[in-house]
Design goal:
The chain is mostly helical and 134 residues long. The protein is built from 5 helices and no strands. The chain is elongated, with a radius of gyration of 21 Å.
């Protein structure tokens, strides 16, 4: 297990607690590092490899869909607690944000695969034209 995972398990917020600053800083550090590393990797990819890389990226995006499904189903939604606000509304807000995450992740995965398929069709047409010329 990674140290970040162990830290997150130990500092699980309850209804009355706020997220531990150590966990928040560690999560932000991982996010910033992943963003920098992702930019470095993507910027060095030759144009010919963009389509396979995009397909693999869409498959990885499916993992975010699974994670958002877990978040959306973690708590029971209660509209009355959500409308009343306060500490009791946290679980309902988590469910609402999880639903929004499920929707956006689904749109991301479906449109990404559609775009990848469209790009692959462009390569197929060029291949057929070259064979017809021979």
């Amino acid at each position: 297990m990674s140290p970040l995972f162990i830290l997150a398990i130990q500092a699980q917020p309850t209804v009355a607690e706020v997220m531990d600053p150590k966990v928040l800083i560690a999560a932000f550090y991982v996010f910033a590092l992943a963003a920098f590393l992702g930019y470095q990797v993507i910027s060095r990819v030759p144009p010919l490899l963009h389509t396979p890389l995009m397909s693999a990226t869409n498959a990885i995006s499916g993992i975010s869909l699974v994670g958002s499904l877990v978040i959306a189903g973690a708590y029971k939604f209660n509209f009355h607690k959500l409308a009343a606000g306060g500490v009791g509304a946290h679980e309902s807000w988590a469910t609402v944000m999880g639903f929004i995450a499920v929707f956006t992740a689904t749109v991301n995965v479906v449109s990404g695969f559609g775009l990848t398929d469209r790009m692959l069709k462009m390569f197929r047409k060029e291949f057929k034209k070259k064979e017809a010329q021979k």
